[in-house]
Request: fold
Amino acid sequence: MAAHLIDGKALALSIREQIGKDVAQLAEQANVTPGLAAILVGEDPASAIYVKNKKAACGKAGIYADENKLPASTSQSELLALIDKMNADPKIHGILVQLPLPKHIDSKVILEAVSPEKDVDGFHPYNVGRLVAADPVFVACTPKGVMKMIESIGQPIEGKRAVIIGRSNIVGKPVALLLMHANATVTVCHSRTKDLPTVCREADIVVAAIGRANFVTRDMIKEGAIVIDVGINRLEDGRLVGDVDFEGAKEQAGWITPVPGGVGPMTIAMLLQNTLESAKRFANK
Ligand code: NDP
Reply:
């Protein structure tokens, strides 16, 4: 039986429409317009597209977007000075530093310079710690989007076996924490995991965040499982595919996300959501 599709594009659109209404209400009631500062250093074409899409999404939701494009030659201290300025700017409620940064800049130093109160990406150690303590302020956008997609199915997460493939700080680890906090029994797999297919077949929920095209095949999936594909991989023929072999997996899974049109649009919706939540917190101070 073919799996139900979890349509990230449609879900993200409905969330963005609600955000647009909430933004208008915040402006009316508290005279506050949420503001996001996006900082892009260098000429990486993929990063430029991501920032452009995020800016356009802000515009549609009524969120003020301040795009800061800096040359690849920007020094670390110049970038830190810009972040300090944004940290102090009352029009800005969220700061996004698009990764990757040029090699001469230490990303760790930069991400720690963003005020935890404006850290809409949820990458600052303070916000990571709050997530670990099950008392989050900002949850990183992609993991937050993954949870919304799983929740949208309307099935209980509690007691389910979840397998996360990938242990990065920005996807795998926070997704594992969120699923654990939702009372799933969580296993995190990585490149040193032995017999990954056997581990994966035990999962009621599979989250693939690897960065390898079509890595998760039909034989690795338990019948009826929820399969969330975070991967974005460009094939030689130009096609964009996920980490899951969608055509095979959809015959075995109960629910599955497509690529494109799955987790990607949800990541942007969650960025807007985090910016709105931040503006509300500032308004209530
Ligand atoms: P990273 O490269 O940081 O992490 C990849 C993880 O996959 C690592 O933990 C690595 O293990 C694991 N891995 C690699 N090869 C294997 C293997 N053969 N078997 C098992 N595990 C393996 O990637 P990210 O987490 O940043 O991103 C993952 C994917 O998600 C990418 O395709 C990225 O483009 C996409 N992405 C999509 C987003 C969206 O909005 N849709 C947002 C962010 C990312 P180890 O730790 O042992 O090296």
